[in-house]
């Protein structure tokens, strides 16, 4: 098992998705992370506004994905942005898109997916930019939301537990590493379920059960945990066997997956049961998968073996350490 764990962690460290997060360090070096009201490195920009916060985020999609799955790319434009808003303890207000396509037919499929996703999650598309005479097919979608109390990447504390909440009622969206528990629920009943599931995050924030969270992104579960640890200036130990996982999903594939509904939250140990009960009450699998520590390492335990996945004291990921 020791050799298996070493090989697994090496493969994940060398993956393209984690490398893409390292690219963020170049952006942070140019834009800077000095004393400012808006902290860089979170799922959304949180802009103080009245008795709460405006949340602003955007997502872009690679040409190859948009060209091979135009409807699903459009759907994801709404889905992943809504997930970012929820991860910050917020509720979506509206989205805008920027679309480039080489034909009107390609544009129609992309926009239909965006329309279906926006309707499913109950967030209107209020404008954007369209070019149907381009040489490529690309999509970017931005979202505005609002939060009363924030969940952030900066407030995980040593002594807290790490909870993973993942909707396992899905399927692989081959050939991409997506675990899709969303796009098949575009009807009225399915949409109501998805909106109720998303609502769990802001209510957890407003009830003071958690202050730190991230949605599990293309960096995978360990990569997302590493991003959370870096921004909070802490370390974590994660038990792989405790991670919610479909029965037939190999560990490597699952740790590389981007689930349509997957969140990491930290909480005081005494609040963990209440948080997990809320997810489980809606059919979402939730488990304590680790603990937050004062180290700057992300350590992983599998069976009886333990190994360091990443040492932030030696090498940053995104360049957003405190």
Automatic annotation (TrEMBL):
It holds the Pfam family AIRS. GO terms for molecular function: thiamine-phosphate kinase activity. One of its GO terms (biological process) is thiamine biosynthetic process. Residues 41-146 form the PurM-like N-terminal domain. Keywords: Plasmid, Thiamine biosynthesis. The keyword Manganese does not apply. Residues 198-302 form the PurM-like C-terminal domain. InterPro entries: AIR_synthase-rel_sll0787, PurM-like_C_dom, PurM-like_C_sf, PurM-like_N, PurM-like_N_sf, ThiL-like, UCP036540_AIR. PANTHER family: THIAMINE-MONOPHOSPHATE KINASE. This is Selenophosphate synthetase.
């Amino acid at each position: 098992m020791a050799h298996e764990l070493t090989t697994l962690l090496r493969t994940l460290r060398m993956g393209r998705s984690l490398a893409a997060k390292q690219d963020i360090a170049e952006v942070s070096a140019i834009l800077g992370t000095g004393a400012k009201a808006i902290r860089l490195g979170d799922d959304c920009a949180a802009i103080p506004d009245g008795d709460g916060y405006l949340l602003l985020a955007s997502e872009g999609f690679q040409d190859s994905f948009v060209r091979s799955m135009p409807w699903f790319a459009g759907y994801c434009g709404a889905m992943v942005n809504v997930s970012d808003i929820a991860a910050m303890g917020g509720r979506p207000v509206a989205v805008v898109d920027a679309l480039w396509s080489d034909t009107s037919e390609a544009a129609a499929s992309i926009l239909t997916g965006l329309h279906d996703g926006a309707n499913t999650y109950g967030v209107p598309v209020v404008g954007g930019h369209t070019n149907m005479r381009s040489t490529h097919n690309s999509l970017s979608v931005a979202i505005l939301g609002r939060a009363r109390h924030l969940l952030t990447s900066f407030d995980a504390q040593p002594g807290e537990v790490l909870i993973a909440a993942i909707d396992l009622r899905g399927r692989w969206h081959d050939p991409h590493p997506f675990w899709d528990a969303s796009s098949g629920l575009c009807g009225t009943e399915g949409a109501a379920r998805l909106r109720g599931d998303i609502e769990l995050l802001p209510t957890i924030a407003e009830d003071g059960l958690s202050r730190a969270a991230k949605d599990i992104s293309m960096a995978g579960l360990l990569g997302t945990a590493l991003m959370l640890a870096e921004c909070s200036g802490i370390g974590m130990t994660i038990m792989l066997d405790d991670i919610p996982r479909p029965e037939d999903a190999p560990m490597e594939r699952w740790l590389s997956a981007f689930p349509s509904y997957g969140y990491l939250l930290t909480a005081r140990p005494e609040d963990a049961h209440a948080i997990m009960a809320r997810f489980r009450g809606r059919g979402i699998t939730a488990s304590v998968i680790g603990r937050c520590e004062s180290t700057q390492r992300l350590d992983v335990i599998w069976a009886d073996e333990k190994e360091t996945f990443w040492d932030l004291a030696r090498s940053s990921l995104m360049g957003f350490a405190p």
